[in-house]
């Protein structure tokens, strides 16, 4: 089942984890930190929407579309590095991350992550393709 958000942005599976972890690191500044968290998230969403229209303004050249996918790959790599660095953070004297979990929990988390990834990729691909085709026909 896909998420339907009233804000028009995708609320992915990591949002609940991120919002649940933030209070551990913020102390009494939770409201401010959540505000900054939302500002960064909505800014990134807005920049992504703007970036999707750039090839149309620059002449719809295939090299521009291909370079956009390269930029998306680099952004994904930056996120992987960021999350890897965050897994070394300690909170309250205990180490956060997958090392404290049992083997079955780690396997379940991995399988759910794979399913969420496939669902997100397939859902976005099919929806965008069908909508683009419908607008092309109309």
Q: Any overview of this molecule?
A:
This protein has 138 residues and is mostly helical. The chain has 3 domains: 10-51, no CATH class; 59-97, no CATH class; 101-138. It is built from 5 helices and 2 strands; from the N terminus they run H-H-H-H-E-E-H. The chain has helices at residues 13-26, 30-51, 54-57, 62-86, 103-137, and strands at 90-91, 94-95. It has a two-stranded antiparallel ribbon. Strand 1 (90-91) and strand 2 (94-95) form a beta hairpin. The chain is extended and about 50 Å long. The two termini are 29 Å apart.
Overall shape: it is extended
Give the tally of structural domains: 3
- The share of residues in helices is over 70%
Task: Give a quick account of the main beta sheet: strands, pairing sense, barrel closure.
Answer: 2 strands, antiparallel
Portion in strands: under 5%
Instruction: Note the gap between the termini.
Output: 29 Å
Low-pLDDT ranges: 1-8
Give the number of helices: 5
- Gyration radius (Cα, Å) is 19 Å
Q: How much is the average pLDDT? A: 74
Order of helices and strands: HHHHEEH
Structural class: mainly alpha
Number of strands: 2
Read across the widest sheet, the strand sequence of neighbours is 1-2
Counting copies of identical and different chains, the oligomeric state is: single chain
